[in-house]
Each structure stands twice: as structure tokens, then as C-alpha cells.
Amino acid sequence: MGAAMNTVYNNYLTAYTPSLTRYDTHKKSELRKVYNSIVKLNKESPWYLPTTSKDTQRYAIDIKENARGLHNTIAHLGGLEDSGLLNKKSAFSSDENVAKASFIGSQIPEDVTPGFQLEVQSLASPQENLGLFLPDARVSLPPDTYSFDIAVNDMNYEFQFSISDGETNRDVQERLVRLINNSDIGIQASVTESDGRSSLRLTSEATGIPKGKTSQFQVSDDHTSKKPGTVAYFGLDYTSREPSNAVFLVNGESREASSNHFTMGKLFDVQLTGTSPEGEPVQIGLKTDIESLTDNVTHLIGGYNDFVKAASSYLETQAKSRKLVRELSGIANHYNSSLEPMGLSMQQDGTLEIDRDQLQRTASQAPNIAETFGYLKDFYHALLKKSDQVALDPMEYVEKKIVAYKNPGHNFINPYATSAYSGMMFNGYC
Asked: Do the Cβ atoms of 223 and 156 come closer than 8 Å?
């Protein structure tokens, strides 16, 4: 049962949450607040038939995840606290073809301007095993049940499969690709062709050299449970490219990292994208306050627009998605007259368009940014409230058949009704 549930959660996270952030972790008090909100929400809500349509369930999860994404965008900009709102610093890189950077630190003293020079000598790379190139002819191995082992991340995984009479090398290679990729063990398999022959390629998802090891994974059938022989026949144990660490200089000091994505001094999140010419380092630092403000507003509007577009994509298939689009557009329209002088204009589809030049002029001419952009803060708070409400109860925007209304004041607490009806799981981040 435990393994089955892990598979379900892994599929959910892979499909809907490809990148979790630090805002997806919560304190006990925050989780208790979510639980109490669910209890209050369901205490007086009517009973309705469970949704069995896969499309409807996918829609409910999709708008829930888009609401969570908007919440995280606002949180990243410091919007969970008034003191941090619009004050989030932005980082810059003088050459994003070599490295991209974002600021992840807290507020810093005005007389301190953190930054550093970065010279990238080589990127971190994964391990690659390239098998023998075989003709598309009958497999030379006798029909039987075979197996081999892949050791990765201190775990050993056995793969069993059968070879039938008449199968070709290409047939078996393609079956092994599906078998390995569906196992989700951190190894990607593919078939490579050359001169009419095909080879099985195995590539680690992780990069760099693991601590205390020399490889990311190993393939063998020396101690496997079924018949051995496929590792040597297909050449699965040949490492065509060893894993390597990223090598770079920070202010002239040599460093290494097993990944191309790392943090520097708890202030910068760095993503290496290429190598730099020798002696020509990239400058990483902080943008000016006006540039940072412009980036903050741009990210906020981008998060809002993504949410509106996601809801609008279901207008033809989910009748109540129109209600969500109308509510989101209503929030923007309420503040439209106040946001227009800042360079934000309402579009016919409910999205907002931003004029960065006008926004920067408004910010540079403002005697007090907090007062000038006060309405923008109100807009932040309204979007945050709406995103939390949608994430908590996406079924509000799903067509459903009411079975019975509860007797007001004389009912039982049913905290997980929303989850059960929608086929969703309230997991770690709720």
C-alpha cells in the first residue's frame, strides 16, 4: 500500500508541481490554520455527488495549482508582509548566457551592495552509458526471462523482462527504454541510431560526481535473480561519458559544484548556463531600487495573467470557469483606474498589460513610493486572498449536483469533504 501511495504522490508532483519552492513548506501553526479553514468551509456546505469525470478533476487540480502558483509569486515578492511588499531586491547578471541569478536574501543595509565576479570554466555534466550498436535483426540471445541491476543513489533496482523467439534487437531496446523510464529512478533511457544500427543510451538525471563515489550509476547482471547476459550483449555497462562537476572562479577563487544550480552566501540563487571566456568574468549583483520595483510588478502581473489564462482555457469545457475568470477580472477592474497611471492597463480578455517605461517614470518621480504605489499593495492583497480561497476550495468553480443541504447548526464537522469530492489529496503544502 505504501509503495502504491508513493507512486500516486510522485505522479501528482511530477504532473502538477515540477518545481517546489521554500514557500511550499509550512509551520505547524500554518497547517493548523489551513485545517481550521477547511473545517469551517465544510461545516455548512451542502452534500453533492462526487465528481467522476477525469477532465473535471484535472480542471479542479489545475486551477488549484495555478492559485498556489500565484500565492507563491506574491510570497516571493515579499507580499505576505506589508513591510516587505514592493521592497524585494532583484539580482542581475551581466551575461545570462553564462549565468542567471536571483536574489533570495532578506533586506540588506543600504550601505552594503553584495555582488561578485563569476568565471565559469566548465559546467556540471551527467553520466552517460552508451551500449553497443546492433543491427535490426533477430536477437542472438535465446528466449528466456532475463534481468539486470542498476545501482543509483545507494539503491539497487532490478529490471526483469522476457525475450521471445523472433524478436529483434530494436524491439528489446525499445522495451527496455519504456521499462527504465517508467521506473522513475533518475535514469533516462533512449535509443540512438547510427548507420542503420541502434544503441541503448542511459543518462543520469543528476549531474556531477557524488561524494565518495566516481559514478552516478552502475549497471550489472553479476548477481541478478534471473538469467544474466543482457548487459554484455547490449553493452549497458560501458560509460561513454563520466559525470563531472562544475568548475568556476568566484572573485578569482576556484570552486566546484556537483550541480549547475546553487546558492552563494544565502543571498543569490545562481543557475549556470554556459562557460565564459578566460579572463572575462560575469558580474553578479543587485539592481537599483527602481529596476527591482519594476521587476516585482512585472512578476506579479505575470502571475496574475497566467492564472487568468489558465482559467480561460477551460471556458468551453467547464461552465463555472467563467465565474473564476469574472472574479479575477473584477479584482483587476476594481483597481484599474488607480493602476493605469502606473503603466498597467486592462485588456479585453481580463489580463493586464504593463508599460515598463511608464512604471519606471512613475517610480522615479514619486516623492514617496509607499504612498504612490499604495493601490498596488491593495491589489496584491486582493489577489492573495482570492488565490488562497481558490486553492482551498477549487470545487467552488466546478459544476456539481447538490444532493442535500445540511441542517443549519446541527451537523457534524467534515473537514475532508472537498478533497473526497474532487478526487484530490491535500498533501504537504495543502
From this structure: no
pLDDT of residue 426: 42
What nine digits make up the cell of 312? Answer: 480561460
Q: How many helices (H) and strands (E) does the chain have?
A: 12, 20
CB-count exposure of residue 69 (10 Å: 0-12, 13-18, 19+): buried
DSSP annotation of 244 reads B
Give the pLDDT score at 104.
83
pLDDT value for 140? 93
**DSSP for 348-382, written as a single string:** TTS-EEE-HHHHHHHHHH-S-HHHHTHHHHHHHHH
Q: Does residue 380 have a pLDDT over 50?
A: yes
Maximal CA-CA distance, the chain = 83
SS3 175: helix
- Domain positions in the chain are 52-86+291-399, 91-124+245-286, 126-241
What is the rounded distance in angstroms from the CA atom of residue 266 to the CA atom of residue 103?
9
The class of domain 126-241 in CATH terms is mainly beta
Residue type, 36: N
Nearest to 218 by CA among 283, 119, 280, 127: 127
- Tell me the C-alpha distance between 112 and 267, whole Å: 12
Backbone angles phi, psi at 199, to 5 degrees: -135, 150
pLDDT in tens, 112-169: 668 899 999 999 999 999 999 999 999 999 999 999 999 998 899 999 999 999 899 9
* pLDDT higher at 129 or 102: 129
Q: Residue 16 pLDDT > 60, yes or no?
A: no
Q: What is the pLDDT of residue 423?
A: 41
- List Cα–Cα distances, 138 to 163, 314, 420, in angstroms: 11, 49, 51
pLDDT in the model for residue 425? 46
Is there a shared CATH topology between the 52-86+291-399 domain and the 126-241 domain?
Answer: no
Q: Strand ranges (DSSP E) for 208-257?
A: 217-220, 239-241, 246-250, 253-257
Torsion sign across C-alpha atoms 170, 173, 179, 183: negative
pLDDT of 249 = 95
**What b/e sequence results for 349-359 when a residue is b if at least 16 CB atoms lie within 10 Å of its CB, and e otherwise?**
ebbbebeeeeb
Please name the fold of domain 52-86+291-399: Four Helix Bundle (Hemerythrin (Met), subunit A) (1.20.120)
